[in-house]
Amino acid sequence: MGNLREIRDRMKSVTSTQQITKAMKMVSAAKLKKAQDNIWMMRPYFSKLNQLLENLTAGLEIPVTTPLHQSRELNNVLIVLITSDRGLCGAFNSNIIKRVSRLIHEKYSEHFQNGKLHLICLGKKGYEHFLKRKFTIDMGYTDFFTGISYQKCMKISQTVVDGFISGKYDVVEMVYNEFKNVATQIQKAEVLLPISPEKTGDKKPTLKKTSYLTEPTPEHLVKELIPKMLKVKFYKAILESVASEQGARMTAMSQATDNAQELLKNLRLVYNRERQAKITKEIIEIVSGAEALSAG
User: Fold this and answer.
1) Segments forming the whole domain that contains residue 206
2) Number of domains in the chain
3) What CATH code is carried by the domain that includes residue 74?
4) pTM for this structure?
5) What are phi and psi of 163, to 5 degrees?
6) What is the rounded CA–CA span in Å between residue 83 and residue 160?
7) DSSP code for 60
8) What order of strands is seen across the sheet that includes strand 184-193?
9) Catalytic sites, residue numbers
10) Structural domain contains residue 115
11) Contact in structure between 212 and 59 (CB atoms under 8 Å)
């Protein structure tokens, strides 16, 4: 009887867990819809802004340079990594942590050993991981994604820009998950600063030159658009990460719900088998007792 009670208790526990994972899946699905809407709007805006910048710079006789273009000796490196505040989202966070670790090993191991590698962590999971391993964390943001907004992100991106211009950082890289679909996220590692000539149209343009009537001058517009482009790119990366997180969590909770259903199925089979064996044993005992009485 004790064995049957244990199986029933385990079935109740699995059922309770299944209800939780199913509820979390539904919540993530609702959040994913909103996050997808945000990136579907941001992607064409970012693309058009980039195209406008390329068209403007393609018509300039002398390439425009700003303090954000300044390349210098790599003494201090900053990596901005975007993870999540919560778990239960599959390999979403571990993939970013692995990507950052690989980036450091491949490009910045010497800077790390010399204490010249700095991190800005957006999300509790990445912050806690690298804090335990004694990395130099200049800023760590937890509970950052609650009420996410462009203005909120701009404060961080401006801090990064100011750090680069002042010489605190010589290169800035950003690592995040790009949303592909509900089940797939692509880990991206991109150099934010310095801005390379290829990113502002100083290379030979592949697009046809477009003639604009501008006021003020095209040079002035380009100088204004470059920092704006950088901030929009930063905000886009955060939106991509938010959508990726919800997609990863929805997928993980869906798999957990299915696994719980399969486990319940197996437990029911075991329970029925044990119960049948118990009933059979009791019948045999009754029959044996009756036969013993008859023989007596």
Assistant:
1) 26-252
2) 1
3) 3.40.1380.10
4) 0.86
5) -65, -35
6) 18
7) -
8) 136-141, 117-122, 77-82, 171-181, 184-193
9) 89
10) yes
11) yes
